[in-house]
Amino acid sequence: MSNEAKSALLAIGVPFVGVMGGIVALSGSELTVLGFPILFAWLFLWMPLTSLCLHMAWKFFDRKDFEEAERNELAQAKTEIGDPT
Which of 1, 42, 59, 71 is the most exposed place for a label (fewest CB within 10 A)? Predict the structure, then answer.
C-alpha cells in the first residue's frame, strides 16, 4: 500500500468508521455522559480524535514528501536567480 493510501486511510477512513460505527452502535442507548446522551458524547469525542488522525497522517506519511518538495523548489529557485548558497 502506498503512503498516499495509508495517509488517506488514517486521515479519513479511521474517523469515518469511528463516527459511523458509533452512530450504529450507540443510537439506541439511553446512557449519558456529563448529562449528554452517549451518542453525542461519542461524536464530540471524535472531533479532537479526527484532528489527531490528521496530524498522525501528516507526521508519519506526508511530511517527508512535502519537505523534500520544498527543498527541491528552493534549490530550483536559487539556481534560477543565480544564488551561490
Answer: 1
